[in-house]
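Before relying on records like the one below, remember that each one covers exactly one chain. Contacts with other chains, cofactors or solvent are not represented anywhere in the record.
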Amino acid sequence: MLSRTIRRAAKPATTTRSFERYLNLHEYQSSALMKANGINVPVGIAAHSAKEAIAAAEEIGDAEVVIKSQILAGGRGLGTIWKSVSSGYSYPPPPGMNASCCAPPSATYLQGGVHVIKKEQVEAYANKMLGGTLVTKQSGPEGKPVTTLLMAKKMELVNEMYLSITLDRTTMGPLIVACAKGGTSIEDTAAEDPSWIIKCPVDISKGITKENTKTVVDGLIAGLERMGVASQLKDKKEDAYKQIENLYNMFVKYDCTMVEVNPIAEDPSGLLLAADAKIGFDDNAAFRQQEVFDQGEKNVDQVDPREVAAAEFDLNYVGLDGNIGCMVNGAGLAMATMDIASQKGGEPANFLDVGGSASVKNIKGAFEIITRDPKVKCILVNIFGGIMKCDVIAEGVKQAAAEMDLKIPLVVRLEGTNVAAGNKIIKDANLATLISADDLDDAAEKAVQAIS
């Protein structure tokens, strides 16, 4: 995936962004989609306020309900919801955690983003969770805002397992990953003992086969036996095969990049139930998955606003943690620019590819997005003109710098189509903060020197 490659290239030890360029749905949205495709899911109702949460609990009708924070990241149950003191709530510190290490001293918090509670507690918990920021292992330290809750029926679950379907570079096709230990962090299980992990590649030209589903189900049963827990799953294998087949068919039908069910649970009768799920979709398929993508547009509060703005300007942007803002044309050149900047002792603040057909308006938009990051102390523009002409870039740079009254150093390296015209535009602009560079090495060195 593009953003993962970017983070590897840009000093991963200091990078904490968790952006994905693929559309993701919340659990309540994913649950509705799975139910429509023959997958067993718990009864659940989305709520956006305490009042709606109370009504949902009444509709479910049980003495106890499950209240679940909805964010686009896994590990919610083990996460922490941070909230300001002004909210009026004071939560005990998470076990073994110092409050000052993870948030400002003024913050309060609630351990866990998923709770089983009595119906009478719904209002109190909804008020504690809504408006907070949930930090999990997958969210990054900045966390995600909690604006929606899923009120779910409390299910009697015998065993909690893990199952996901993703795209695998090694097999160049779908890969089913499963584990008898589910309901918690699969990353921890895989790190501690990889022997628990079941991997089953699927030949995409043939589709999922009975052999594939049998490999996964038998592996889960063996894992449960290894754990020494009781299970009726072996008596309901045919239903389990069908559930996994339905999950795979949904993965293909909706152009998914990932379907993660954690936990995929066993009920007392041995039937499998998708108790919690996260689904990602390839944005290249938006033209044929319009209904799904219309739902995803409601989730923009879960994405860095700079990334949302970049999409409006048709720019490819990923925010990072450095102080050198980069604007480049072409993904390969952008990554090379970030590499060289890192090698020269700098830290890129972003990946930004303006593409091959950017207009002056797009270039100005790119500058606005880069300068929204308060950590940016210098902007490095590296353009190799092919389809993208250097004079167009130069005109956009000139207008953006003038209109924004740019105060930070601006290092510009232009090469390729219309480079002479581009250099003349930059020179005639008389930009006070402009630093010209002859090549990429020179540009990276000057960017680092400018902030030293």
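The first strand starts at residue 23 and ends at 25.
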